[in-house]
Amino acid sequence: MSNEGTTSAPQRPAPKRHSGSSLGRICRKWPLFVWLLFIPALFALYEYGGGYYELNGTVEFDFESISSREVGRIEDIKVAIGQKISRGDLLIVLDTSLIDKQIASIREELELDRLDRDRRFTSSVQRIRVDVSELLMDQASDSAEIAILSRQLERLQGLLEQGLVDREIVSELESKIAVLAKRGDMHPSLISKVEADLEDSIARLAELHTIERPGNNRLALLEQRREHCFLKAANDGVVAEISFQRGENVPAGEPIARLIIKEYDPSNGKEVKRVMGFQPERFAHLQPTVGDELVVYSETNPSAEIRMEVVSVTPHILNFPGRVRNAPNRMARGRNIQLRSITGQDHDALVPGEWVVIETTSIGFFGFLRGS
After folding, report:
1. What's the rounded Cα separation, in Å, for the pair 85 and 106?
2. Are residues 67 and 171 in the same domain?
3. Which of 15, 60, 236, 326 has a CA 20 to 30 Å removed from the CA of 223?
4. 334, 303: one domain
5. Residues 322-348 as b or e (16 or more Cβ within 10 Å = b)
6. Tell me, what CATH number does 350's domain have?
């Protein structure tokens, strides 16, 4: 009975397996497959997707200090902060009243000295001219007297032959004529010598007018000092700072104003600007080379893209104490990269001293691992 009951009991059918159970398990693990596909795609995009590596930098500029060579009082300021100036423009005028008085005094002294010198030499020349005139007159007088005495001698010789006059009278007249003749022979040489002295005196007077007198050197020095009171710009640029006001006394060598000067390309004379970029040490093996063209973005004008050329790269790693690093107790290290704007680019969009971003080529994932 028990066996029959056991055999007669109905058996339960096996559960029917769902045909899509394996696909369901796969569908339930879809986040894993998404990550498996996303990570290689991310690496591929990072390596070949055209990403860019950026460097930080600043726009370089040079100052020109305008200062006086001696203590002076500012009489006038011809410029204002932000004003563009050209080379040779007058910027600052210092008071020249004391120097002007000294110059006037020396000029008066030199004029008096010149008048006294001219008077003395003029008197000397006049005396020589009188001597020349007297010699010429003596020569003419002696010639006339010789002619008269010669005629008298002829008459006396006739009378002497007739015995009407003494021999002593004729001899005295002959000696007198001989003396006058001898004197007449000496006149040409004397006149030539005196005329030579006259020409020498005139030449000496003209030479003295050109000889530098001690006062001339002092006058030239004062005029040079006066010229230095008019402070001019040595370069093109923009007024960046004015440290003193009109009427203030300025110490010698103290900068009165400072200019941000312009820089020009020596090859074509066009204005250029420089950017100094900082490349961190971990990317030093990716340094640009001289001659590469990089794109620079201005912080003050983000829409401007300025292409610049790499002109120098420091060959060694430098310490930059002024740069802050996230790592504690460590200073920033890296290379300096200097760039110069290319002709035709809008370099006016770069403000001197501003922060810029320098865009370089993609570094890739593996490159990042090598540089880190």
Report:
1. 36
2. no
3. 236
4. yes
5. eeeeeeeeeebbbbebbbbbeeebebe
6. 2.40.30.170
313-325 pLDDT tens trace: 888 887 765 554 5
For residue 218, count CB atoms less than 10 angstroms from its CB and return exposed for 0-12, middle for 13-18, buried for 19 or more.
middle
Give this prediction's pTM.
Answer: 0.58
299, 356 contact by CB (below 8 A): yes
Q: Give the span between the Cα atoms of 112 and 7, in whole angstroms.
A: 160
Tally the domains of the chain: 3
Distance CA 362, CA 51 (A): 5
Highest mean pLDDT among 119-123, 212-216, 327-331 belongs to: 119-123
Based on the fold, state whether residues 233 and 246 are members of the same structural domain: yes
Domain shared by 296 and 234, yes or no? no
DSSP H helices, the chain, are 2-7, 21-28, 30-48, 97-162, 167-210, 214-227, 365-371
Q: Are residues 286 and 365 in the same domain?
A: yes
Whether residues 338 and 275 fall in one domain: yes
Range of the domain at 268: 49-61+264-371
Quote the CA–CA distance of 78 and 230 in Å, as a whole number. Answer: 11
173 pLDDT tier (thresholds 50, 70, 90): confident
